Amino acid sequence: MCCTVASSPRAWSCWPAARTGAIVADAGTEKRVVISDDAQALATSVARRFIDRVAKQVDRGKTVHICLTGGSMGGAVLRAAAADPRTGGIDWSGVHFWWGDERWVPRDSDERNERQARAALLDGLDLPAENIHAMASSDETLDLDAAATAYADELAQFAPADRSETGPWPGFDICFLGVGPDGHIASLFPDRREIQITDRATAAVRDSPKPPPERISLTRPVINSSKRVWMVLAGADKASALGLALAGASYLSVPAAGAKGRKRTILFVDEAAAAQVPPTLIDRDY
Ligand SMILES: O=C(O)[C@H](O)[C@@H](O)[C@H](O)[C@H](O)COP(=O)(O)O
Protein backbone atom coordinates (compact mmCIF):
# COMPACT_ATOMS: atom_id res chain seq x y z
CA MET A 1 0.00 0.00 0.00
CA CYS A 2 1.49 3.31 -0.99
CA CYS A 3 0.27 6.68 0.12
CA THR A 4 0.34 9.80 -1.90
CA VAL A 5 0.66 13.26 -0.56
CA ALA A 6 -0.35 15.76 -3.17
CA SER A 7 0.81 19.33 -3.03
CA SER A 8 -1.25 20.17 0.01
CA PRO A 9 -2.05 18.21 3.17
CA ARG A 10 -5.77 18.56 2.51
CA ALA A 11 -5.34 16.20 -0.40
CA TRP A 12 -3.53 13.65 1.69
CA SER A 13 -5.01 10.33 0.95
CA CYS A 14 -4.19 6.71 0.57
CA TRP A 15 -6.03 3.73 -0.70
CA PRO A 16 -6.42 0.65 1.50
CA ALA A 17 -5.38 -2.19 -0.71
CA ALA A 18 -3.38 -1.20 -3.77
CA ARG A 19 0.37 -1.35 -3.49
CA THR A 20 0.68 0.95 -6.49
CA GLY A 21 -1.31 3.69 -8.01
CA ALA A 22 -1.57 7.25 -6.87
CA ILE A 23 -3.87 10.21 -6.54
CA VAL A 24 -2.87 12.07 -9.67
CA ALA A 25 -3.28 15.50 -8.27
CA ASP A 26 -0.45 16.88 -10.38
CA ALA A 27 2.02 14.39 -11.72
CA GLY A 28 5.02 16.32 -10.51
CA THR A 29 3.77 17.27 -7.07
CA GLU A 30 2.60 13.98 -5.58
CA LYS A 31 4.89 12.46 -3.00
CA ARG A 32 4.82 8.86 -1.91
CA VAL A 33 6.05 7.62 1.42
CA VAL A 34 7.44 4.09 1.63
CA ILE A 35 8.48 2.88 5.05
CA SER A 36 10.85 0.15 6.08
CA ASP A 37 11.35 -1.33 9.51
CA ASP A 38 14.79 0.12 10.20
CA ALA A 39 17.75 1.79 8.48
CA GLN A 40 19.29 -1.45 7.17
CA ALA A 41 16.00 -2.70 5.77
CA LEU A 42 15.50 0.74 4.24
CA ALA A 43 18.89 0.67 2.51
CA THR A 44 18.24 -2.85 1.20
CA SER A 45 14.80 -1.92 -0.10
CA VAL A 46 16.03 1.20 -1.89
CA ALA A 47 19.04 -0.65 -3.32
CA ARG A 48 16.74 -3.35 -4.70
CA ARG A 49 14.62 -0.74 -6.46
CA PHE A 50 17.75 1.04 -7.71
CA ILE A 51 19.12 -2.15 -9.29
CA ASP A 52 15.67 -2.93 -10.72
CA ARG A 53 15.50 0.48 -12.37
CA VAL A 54 19.07 0.42 -13.75
CA ALA A 55 18.64 -3.14 -15.10
CA LYS A 56 15.39 -2.16 -16.82
CA GLN A 57 16.92 0.89 -18.52
CA VAL A 58 20.10 -0.96 -19.53
CA ASP A 59 17.98 -3.77 -21.01
CA ARG A 60 16.24 -1.10 -23.09
CA GLY A 61 19.64 0.07 -24.37
CA LYS A 62 19.30 3.41 -22.64
CA THR A 63 22.10 5.58 -21.28
CA VAL A 64 21.43 5.98 -17.56
CA HIS A 65 22.30 8.97 -15.40
CA ILE A 66 22.27 8.50 -11.63
CA CYS A 67 22.88 11.32 -9.16
CA LEU A 68 24.32 10.15 -5.86
CA THR A 69 24.11 11.70 -2.44
CA GLY A 70 26.52 11.84 0.43
CA GLY A 71 25.61 11.08 4.00
CA SER A 72 25.17 7.84 5.91
CA MET A 73 22.05 6.66 4.08
CA GLY A 74 23.61 7.42 0.70
CA GLY A 75 26.50 5.14 1.52
CA ALA A 76 24.27 2.46 3.06
CA VAL A 77 22.19 2.22 -0.11
CA LEU A 78 25.30 1.84 -2.28
CA ARG A 79 26.74 -0.87 -0.02
CA ALA A 80 23.43 -2.71 -0.21
CA ALA A 81 23.48 -2.36 -4.01
CA ALA A 82 26.99 -3.81 -4.09
CA ALA A 83 25.65 -6.83 -2.16
CA ASP A 84 22.71 -7.35 -4.55
CA PRO A 85 23.29 -10.60 -6.49
CA ARG A 86 22.17 -8.93 -9.74
CA THR A 87 24.71 -6.10 -9.66
CA GLY A 88 27.60 -8.07 -11.14
CA GLY A 89 25.48 -9.17 -14.09
CA ILE A 90 24.49 -5.68 -15.25
CA ASP A 91 26.33 -3.99 -18.15
CA TRP A 92 27.29 -0.72 -16.43
CA SER A 93 29.11 0.69 -19.46
CA GLY A 94 26.23 3.04 -20.29
CA VAL A 95 25.58 4.17 -16.71
CA HIS A 96 26.88 7.57 -15.56
CA PHE A 97 27.25 8.63 -11.95
CA TRP A 98 27.02 12.23 -10.76
CA TRP A 99 26.81 13.87 -7.34
CA GLY A 100 24.21 16.16 -5.82
CA ASP A 101 26.93 17.74 -3.73
CA GLU A 102 30.52 17.36 -2.64
CA ARG A 103 32.56 18.55 0.24
CA TRP A 104 35.42 20.94 -0.59
CA VAL A 105 38.20 18.74 0.81
CA PRO A 106 41.24 16.98 -0.71
CA ARG A 107 40.56 14.15 -3.17
CA ASP A 108 41.83 11.49 -0.74
CA SER A 109 39.86 12.79 2.25
CA ASP A 110 37.49 10.27 3.84
CA GLU A 111 34.94 13.10 3.95
CA ARG A 112 34.62 13.13 0.16
CA ASN A 113 31.27 11.83 -1.06
CA GLU A 114 33.02 10.51 -4.17
CA ARG A 115 35.52 8.51 -2.09
CA GLN A 116 32.73 7.04 0.03
CA ALA A 117 30.71 6.07 -3.05
CA ARG A 118 33.71 4.48 -4.75
CA ALA A 119 34.43 2.39 -1.67
CA ALA A 120 30.77 1.41 -1.25
CA LEU A 121 30.00 0.44 -4.85
CA LEU A 122 31.59 2.26 -7.80
CA ASP A 123 35.12 0.83 -7.69
CA GLY A 124 33.61 -2.64 -7.85
CA LEU A 125 31.68 -1.95 -11.03
CA ASP A 126 32.98 -2.58 -14.55
CA LEU A 127 32.37 0.86 -16.06
CA PRO A 128 34.49 3.42 -17.94
CA ALA A 129 36.35 5.85 -15.66
CA GLU A 130 34.83 8.74 -17.58
CA ASN A 131 31.35 7.65 -16.47
CA ILE A 132 32.13 8.75 -12.95
CA HIS A 133 31.62 12.52 -12.88
CA ALA A 134 33.19 13.64 -9.64
CA MET A 135 33.22 17.27 -8.57
CA ALA A 136 36.67 18.88 -8.19
CA SER A 137 38.53 18.68 -4.89
CA SER A 138 40.23 21.40 -2.86
CA ASP A 139 43.75 20.14 -3.65
CA GLU A 140 43.37 20.73 -7.40
CA THR A 141 43.99 23.88 -9.38
CA LEU A 142 40.48 25.32 -9.33
CA ASP A 143 39.09 27.51 -6.58
CA LEU A 144 35.63 26.75 -5.14
CA ASP A 145 33.69 29.01 -7.50
CA ALA A 146 35.61 27.81 -10.55
CA ALA A 147 35.04 24.20 -9.48
CA ALA A 148 31.29 24.77 -9.25
CA THR A 149 31.30 26.34 -12.71
CA ALA A 150 33.39 23.50 -14.10
CA TYR A 151 30.81 20.98 -12.89
CA ALA A 152 27.99 22.93 -14.51
CA ASP A 153 30.01 22.85 -17.75
CA GLU A 154 30.43 19.07 -17.47
CA LEU A 155 26.71 18.62 -16.85
CA ALA A 156 25.99 20.71 -19.95
CA GLN A 157 27.97 18.30 -22.11
CA PHE A 158 25.39 15.63 -21.27
CA ALA A 159 22.26 17.71 -21.76
CA PRO A 160 19.63 15.92 -23.86
CA ALA A 161 18.84 17.09 -27.39
CA ASP A 162 15.24 17.72 -26.29
CA ARG A 163 15.50 20.20 -23.43
CA SER A 164 11.75 20.75 -23.13
CA GLU A 165 11.82 19.21 -19.65
CA THR A 166 15.32 20.05 -18.49
CA GLY A 167 17.97 22.74 -18.74
CA PRO A 168 21.61 22.37 -19.86
CA TRP A 169 22.13 19.23 -17.80
CA PRO A 170 21.02 15.59 -17.98
CA GLY A 171 17.64 14.71 -16.53
CA PHE A 172 18.79 12.09 -14.02
CA ASP A 173 16.98 8.78 -14.10
CA ILE A 174 17.26 8.75 -10.33
CA CYS A 175 18.39 11.59 -8.09
CA PHE A 176 19.17 10.22 -4.65
CA LEU A 177 18.93 12.72 -1.82
CA GLY A 178 19.71 12.33 1.84
CA VAL A 179 17.74 14.68 4.08
CA GLY A 180 19.22 16.48 7.06
CA PRO A 181 17.42 17.01 10.39
CA ASP A 182 16.87 20.61 9.25
CA GLY A 183 15.35 19.41 5.97
CA HIS A 184 18.40 20.19 3.83
CA ILE A 185 19.06 18.25 0.65
CA ALA A 186 22.42 18.08 -1.15
CA SER A 187 24.11 21.20 0.20
CA LEU A 188 21.00 23.33 -0.08
CA PHE A 189 20.27 24.46 3.46
CA PRO A 190 17.22 26.21 4.91
CA ASP A 191 16.87 29.98 4.63
CA ARG A 192 19.98 30.43 2.54
CA ARG A 193 20.47 31.94 -0.90
CA GLU A 194 21.53 28.71 -2.59
CA ILE A 195 18.05 27.13 -2.33
CA GLN A 196 16.68 30.09 -4.31
CA ILE A 197 19.14 29.85 -7.24
CA THR A 198 17.37 29.11 -10.52
CA ASP A 199 19.72 30.56 -13.16
CA ARG A 200 22.56 28.05 -12.93
CA ALA A 201 23.19 24.38 -12.32
CA THR A 202 25.62 24.53 -9.43
CA ALA A 203 26.46 26.66 -6.43
CA ALA A 204 29.57 27.20 -4.34
CA VAL A 205 28.49 26.91 -0.70
CA ARG A 206 30.40 28.57 2.16
CA ASP A 207 29.77 28.55 5.92
CA SER A 208 27.72 25.37 5.57
CA PRO A 209 25.73 24.57 8.73
CA LYS A 210 26.87 20.99 8.26
CA PRO A 211 30.67 20.55 8.28
CA PRO A 212 32.80 20.85 6.34
CA PRO A 213 32.03 24.50 5.71
CA GLU A 214 32.76 24.64 1.98
CA ARG A 215 30.88 22.56 -0.58
CA ILE A 216 29.63 22.41 -4.13
CA SER A 217 25.94 21.70 -4.68
CA LEU A 218 23.55 21.15 -7.52
CA THR A 219 20.76 23.68 -7.51
CA ARG A 220 17.05 23.00 -7.25
CA PRO A 221 16.31 23.21 -11.02
CA VAL A 222 18.77 20.41 -11.73
CA ILE A 223 17.40 18.21 -8.95
CA ASN A 224 13.82 18.78 -10.08
CA SER A 225 14.68 17.97 -13.70
CA SER A 226 15.25 14.40 -12.58
CA LYS A 227 12.77 11.79 -13.69
CA ARG A 228 12.76 10.31 -10.20
CA VAL A 229 13.71 11.96 -6.92
CA TRP A 230 14.31 9.40 -4.20
CA MET A 231 14.83 10.83 -0.73
CA VAL A 232 16.21 8.38 1.81
CA LEU A 233 15.97 9.22 5.47
CA ALA A 234 16.25 7.20 8.64
CA GLY A 235 16.20 7.99 12.32
CA ALA A 236 14.09 9.90 14.80
CA ASP A 237 16.06 13.09 14.14
CA LYS A 238 14.50 13.20 10.65
CA ALA A 239 10.87 12.93 11.81
CA SER A 240 10.33 16.67 12.03
CA ALA A 241 11.77 17.37 8.57
CA LEU A 242 9.66 14.58 7.07
CA GLY A 243 6.51 15.78 8.76
CA LEU A 244 7.09 19.35 7.56
CA ALA A 245 7.97 18.23 4.03
CA LEU A 246 4.70 16.27 3.82
CA ALA A 247 2.65 19.03 5.40
CA GLY A 248 3.37 21.49 2.61
CA ALA A 249 6.14 23.54 4.22
CA SER A 250 7.94 26.05 2.02
CA TYR A 251 11.03 24.70 0.32
CA LEU A 252 12.82 27.87 1.38
CA SER A 253 12.73 26.76 4.99
CA VAL A 254 12.50 23.00 4.37
CA PRO A 255 14.42 22.29 1.14
CA ALA A 256 13.26 18.65 1.09
CA ALA A 257 9.71 19.94 0.66
CA GLY A 258 10.61 21.32 -2.74
CA ALA A 259 12.37 18.27 -4.20
CA LYS A 260 10.23 16.61 -6.82
CA GLY A 261 10.83 14.41 -9.78
CA ARG A 262 9.17 14.86 -13.15
CA LYS A 263 7.78 11.33 -12.95
CA ARG A 264 8.03 10.24 -9.35
CA THR A 265 8.94 11.57 -5.92
CA ILE A 266 9.37 8.99 -3.20
CA LEU A 267 10.41 9.43 0.40
CA PHE A 268 11.94 6.18 1.59
CA VAL A 269 11.95 6.24 5.37
CA ASP A 270 12.25 3.99 8.39
CA GLU A 271 9.79 3.72 11.26
CA ALA A 272 11.77 6.12 13.45
CA ALA A 273 11.72 8.88 10.83
CA ALA A 274 8.01 8.30 10.22
CA ALA A 275 7.10 8.96 13.85
CA GLN A 276 5.36 12.26 13.05
CA VAL A 277 3.55 11.09 9.93
CA PRO A 278 -0.09 10.02 10.49
CA PRO A 279 -0.09 6.20 10.47
CA THR A 280 -2.88 6.23 7.91
CA LEU A 281 -0.52 7.76 5.38
CA ILE A 282 2.26 5.21 5.67
CA ASP A 283 3.01 2.35 3.33
CA ARG A 284 4.88 -0.46 5.03
CA ASP A 285 7.44 -1.94 2.68
CA TYR A 286 8.07 -5.05 4.80
O1 LIG B 1 27.33 15.88 1.65
C1 LIG B 1 26.43 15.66 2.46
O2 LIG B 1 26.55 15.80 3.69
C2 LIG B 1 25.12 15.09 1.98
O3 LIG B 1 24.93 15.15 0.66
C3 LIG B 1 23.98 15.62 2.78
O4 LIG B 1 23.00 16.28 2.01
C4 LIG B 1 23.36 14.40 3.45
O5 LIG B 1 22.74 13.59 2.44
C5 LIG B 1 22.35 14.78 4.49
O6 LIG B 1 23.00 15.62 5.43
C6 LIG B 1 21.80 13.53 5.19
O7 LIG B 1 22.86 12.82 5.75
P1 LIG B 1 22.56 11.47 6.60
O8 LIG B 1 21.94 10.49 5.65
O9 LIG B 1 23.92 11.04 7.08
O10 LIG B 1 21.63 11.86 7.71
From TrEMBL:
Enzyme Commission no: 3.1.1.31
Signal sequence bounds: none
Pathway: Carbohydrate degradation; pentose phosphate pathway; D-ribulose 5-phosphate from D-glucose 6-phosphate (oxidative stage): step 2/3
SUPFAM superfamilies: NagB/RpiA/CoA transferase-like (SSF100950)
GO molecular function per UniProt: 6-phosphogluconolactonase activity
Keyword line: Hydrolase
Enzyme kind, highest EC tier: hydrolase
Catalytic activity: 6-phospho-D-glucono-1,5-lactone + H2O = 6-phospho-D-gluconate + H(+)
Domain Glucosamine/galactosamine-6-phosphate isomerase: start-end pairs: 38-265
UniProt keyword annotation of Metal-binding present: no
A GO biological process held by the record: pentose-phosphate shunt
InterPro entries, alphabetized: 6-phosphogluconolactonase_DevB, 6PGL, Glc/Gal-6P_isomerase, NagB/RpiA_transferase-like
Keyword Hydrolase: yes
Similarity comment text for this entry: Belongs to the glucosamine/galactosamine-6-phosphate isomerase family. 6-phosphogluconolactonase subfamily.
UniProt function note: Hydrolysis of 6-phosphogluconolactone to 6-phosphogluconate.
Name by which UniProt lists this protein: 6-phosphogluconolactonase
Organism: Microbacterium lushaniae
